[in-house]
Amino acid sequence: MAIFQAKRFRPSSQSQNLASRYRTALAKHPFALFGLPFIATMLLGSFFLTPATALRYERHDRKVHQLTEEEKLGIGKDRRRIDMKEEYYKLAAKDLDNWEQKRVKRLPGEHDGVL
């Protein structure tokens, strides 16, 4: 009986193809041709995306900034002081047992919610 060779038959047209040469080299050196480019892409992507991320946070910081002391003093200038006891007594003085339900007027074209 004849013994067959372990090598596969590849036509000469296929041996010139870049993809087939890469496939055979990948079988011999898988890390160098697959793992190393993958890791390099991840590292380079990290370095290239760092400025984009910094730009994002800089824009956010422009929107949210700390108030100066003058701005803090000017915010609540005309507001009245709230006293919890006073608010409690105002609510207690209201008559909560006698109230009337009133229907809100609908806008034109808006359905009334009843099916």
Portion of residues in beta strands equals under 5%
What is the overall silhouette? elongated
On the 0 to 100 scale, the average pLDDT is 82
Q: How large is the count of helical segments?
A: 5
Low-confidence regions:
none
Overview of the structural elements:
The longest helix is centred in the middle third of the chain and has 34 residues. The protein starts with 11 loop residues before the first helix and ends in a 22-residue tail after the last helix. The protein is an all-alpha fold. Helices cover 57% and strands 0% of the residues. The model has no long low-confidence stretch (mean pLDDT 82). It is built from 5 helices and no strands. Helix 2 packs across helix 3. It is elongated.
Question: Short description, anyone?
Answer:
The protein is mainly α and 115 residues long.
Features:
mainly alpha, 115 residues
Task: Give the topology.
Elements: H1 12-15, H2 18-28, H3 30-63, H4 69-75, H5 84-93
